[in-house]
């Protein structure tokens, strides 16, 4: 079946203004690049549903929703800060993002397609009564709650944003039927300060959270090695009925807010790895969202065009030239090709550990904290 993209222009209005890192145009430029490369021709593009407050209430409190609707600074709800300014129409836009991610999940769960995406989604920091990290409503958590209402029993959420997926983890920390996996820069160095390997789930739900806290400066080879060491074995044991993945692309070396060192080549490789585990361990049911990413012109569009191409089953070669019309939109400094020339030939941990490596220390910490909860030997 052809994969689907849930998208409409209204979704691209999720922004906090020109001077904010979550500036306008990031999703729009990605969709436009995908269109010019012919990727959208390989997808069924469907409009986002209308906002639905009842969906938002699956996760968020009435008092918080009312505060967002009021469009006034309310610090107790995280509204009106430098990171999370109050902007007109934010409730409607954020609620529409929730509806779009839920629609993507619905089309997959009900068998209309095997794969679906909402690139405006992935707002993983929002808490039930708190705006956090540029995220007003937590669309991924809303979609998971909706799937549970439909009787889905085992759901996996995989987060590869450079920032820890703290909102989704917190909401489902005590739920043994929802597995959250997050690979992110170490919370010692980066917001939100959570996501240590020792965070493995609440009482009665040990093993429901798996966290890989990566050292700053990590490149493609290290990141891919960490993914390979943690994600496939955990998903193979959990055996979810559906996978929701968040693909913030702020792990790129050019991102202004993080300290990881991936290239577009590494990010594309990560998308192929996620597609592979979705097919092998998640009944080939895969829901994709965007997320962070603040190199707005040079990184986000290329990364997410690659992601949509992988979703559609037609990966774009890395040496593909970027279209001239798109380069003109970007202006000076526009990337000439769809890759950066980065190495992706990593060494799996099955070849052995290097105890002095900060990366391998992080991998070992995660495996020793989480693997026993799945009946897995952490050392092999």
Can you characterise this structure?
This protein is α/β, with parallel strands linked by helices. It has a single domain (4-374), classed as Arginase, Chain A (3-Layer(aba) Sandwich). 34% of the residues lie in helices and 10% in strands. It has eleven helices and eight strands. It has an eight-stranded parallel beta sheet with strand order 2-1-3-8-7-4-5-6, sandwiched between helices. α6 links the parallel β4 and β5. Belongs to the histone deacetylase family.
Number of domains: 1
Contiguous helical run count: 11
Principal-axes geometry comes out as globular
Highest-level CATH class: Alpha Beta
Number of strands: 8
User: Radius of gyration over alpha carbons?
Assistant: 19 Å
Quaternary organisation: single chain
Strand arrangement in the largest pleated sheet: 2-1-3-8-7-4-5-6
Q: How would a crystallographer describe the biggest sheet?
A: 8 strands, parallel
> What is the first-to-last residue Cα distance?
37 Å
List the helices and strands and how they pair.
Layout: E1 4-6, H1 26-36, E2 44-46, H2 53-56, H3 62-70, H4 90-109, E3 115-118, H5 139-149, E4 155-159, H6 166-171, E5 178-185, E6 209-214, H7 220-238, E7 242-246, H8 264-281, E8 286-289, H9 300-312, H10 324-330, H11 358-370
Parallel strand pairs: 1-2, 1-3, 3-8, 4-5, 4-7, 5-6, 7-8
Helix pairs in contact: 1-9, 4-5, 7-8, 7-11, 8-9
Keywords: Acetoin catabolism
Protein name: Acetoin utilization protein AcuC
Domain Histone deacetylase: 20-310
């Amino acid at each position: 079946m052809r994969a689907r993209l849930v998208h409409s222009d209204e979704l691209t209005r999720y922004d906090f203004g020109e001077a904010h890192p979550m500036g306008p145009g990031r999703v729009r430029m990605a969709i436009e690049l995908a269109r010019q490369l012919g990727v959208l021709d390989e997808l069924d593009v469907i409009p986002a549903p209308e906002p639905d407050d009842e969906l938002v209430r699956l996760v968020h409190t009435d008092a918080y929703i009312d505060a967002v609707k009021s469009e006034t600074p309310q610090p107790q709800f995280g509204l009106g800060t430098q990171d999370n300014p109050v902007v007109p129409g934010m409730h409607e836009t954020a609620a529409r993002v929730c509806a779009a991610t839920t629609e993507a999940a619905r089309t997959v769960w009900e068998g209309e397609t095997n794969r679906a995406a909402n690139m405006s989604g992935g707002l993983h920091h929002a808490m039930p009564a708190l705006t956090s990290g540029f995220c007003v409503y937590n669309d991924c958590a809303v979609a998971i709650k909706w799937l549970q209402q439909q009787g889905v029993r085992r759901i996996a959420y995989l987060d590869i944003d450079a920032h820890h997926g703290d909102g989704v983890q917190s909401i489902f920390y005590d739920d043994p039927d929802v597995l959250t996996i997050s690979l992110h820069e170490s919370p010692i160095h980066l917001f939100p300060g959570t996501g240590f390997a020792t965070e493995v789930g609440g009482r009665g739900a040990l093993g429901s959270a798996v966290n890989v806290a990566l050292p700053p400066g990590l490149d493609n080879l290290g990141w891919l090695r960490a993914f390979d060491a943690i994600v496939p074995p955990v998903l193979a044991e959990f055996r979810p009925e559906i996978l929701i993945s968040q693909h913030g692309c702020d792990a790129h070396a050019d991102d202004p807010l993080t300290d990881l060192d991936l290239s577009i080549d590494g990010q594309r490789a990560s998308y192929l790895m996620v597609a592979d585990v979705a097919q092998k361990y998640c009944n080939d049911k895969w829901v994709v969202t965007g997320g962070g990413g603040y190199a707005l012109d040079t990184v986000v569009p290329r990364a997410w065009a690659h992601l949509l191409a992988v979703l559609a089953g037609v990966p774009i070669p890395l040496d593909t030239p970027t279209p001239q019309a798109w380069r003109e939109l970007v202006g000076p400094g526009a990337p000439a090709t769809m890759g950066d020339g980065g190495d992706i030939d990593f060494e799996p941990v099955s070849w052995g550990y290097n105890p002095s490596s900060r990366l391998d220390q992080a991998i070992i910490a995660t495996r020793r904290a989480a693997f026993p909860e799945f009946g897995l030997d952490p050392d092999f």
